[in-house]
Write a structure and sequence with these properties.
The chain crosses the membrane at residues 26-44, 56-75, 87-106, 127-151, 157-183. Keywords: Membrane, Transmembrane, Transmembrane helix. α2 packs across α7 and α5 packs antiparallel against α6 (123-144). This protein has helices at 3-31, 45-56, 60-75, 78-84, 88-108, 123-144, 154-191. It is an all-alpha fold and 192 residues long. The protein has one domain. The two termini are 32 Å apart.
Length: 192
């Protein structure tokens, strides 16, 4: 993986996290204020996790870790940062490995969805990977933050993590699909 690829993954993660923090979080905090600190109903960086792991395998893990760390540092309010700072490395690690873990788990069962293993991108396979990695991430994040999550909110936050990750993945995949179509249309028009 080239330095440019690493940089693009970090920038994509930070950009998607910024969109989530600056657009989704303010609206969600009005509707679900007690959950918003821990989980988002639309978490766009999960799409970056899945797509980066699809394209780069284990090599995406350090890049995702750095992107998540930078995004957390940039967009987490100071009062929340102070509360979760001691758990941040564990949280970043769980998020960075969740998609890779899902790809490897399915590969063990004979379903290789990595880039290049199939002629075309398998969208259904990517949604399956996204769902599995969302469960891994949801359980992991909920355990990491179990010391600050009220026990009665545990299941609710776990579900919000999973929903937010999946919605974020679907939105990123649609954006990627339109980007691919635009690039393909642009390159065809340029040839004429």
């Amino acid at each position: 993986m080239s330095c440019l690829t690493y940089l693009l993954i970090v920038l994509a993660y930070v950009f998607c996290h910024g969109l989530t923090s600056l657009v989704v979080t303010p609206v969600q905090s009005i509707l679900l204020p007690e959950i918003t600190m821990f989980a988002s109903l639309i978490y766009l960086p999960h799409g970056v996790r899945v797509l980066a792991s699809w394209a780069s395998g284990w090599k995406a893990i350090p890049t995702l870790f750095i992107g998540a760390g930078l995004a957390s540092w940039l967009f987490t309010p100071a009062d929340e940062w102070d509360m979760v700072q001691g758990m941040m490395l564990e949280s970043l690690f769980v998020g960075a490995i969740s998609a890779y873990f899902a790809f490897e788990l399915l590969r063990l069962f004979g379903c290789d969805f990595y880039f290049g293993s199939q002629r075309r991108l398998n969208w259904k396979g990517m949604i399956l990977i996204g769902a599995i990695s969302s469960v891994v991430n949801s359980v992991g994040q909920t355990l990491v933050f179990s010391g600050v999550i009220a026990f009665e909110r545990f299941a609710q936050i776990l579900i919000i993590y999973a929903i937010g990750d999946l919605i974020g993945l679907v939105i990123c995949m649609f954006a990627l699909m339109f980007l691919f179509r635009w690039v393909r249309g642009y390159s065809l028009a340029k040839r004429r």
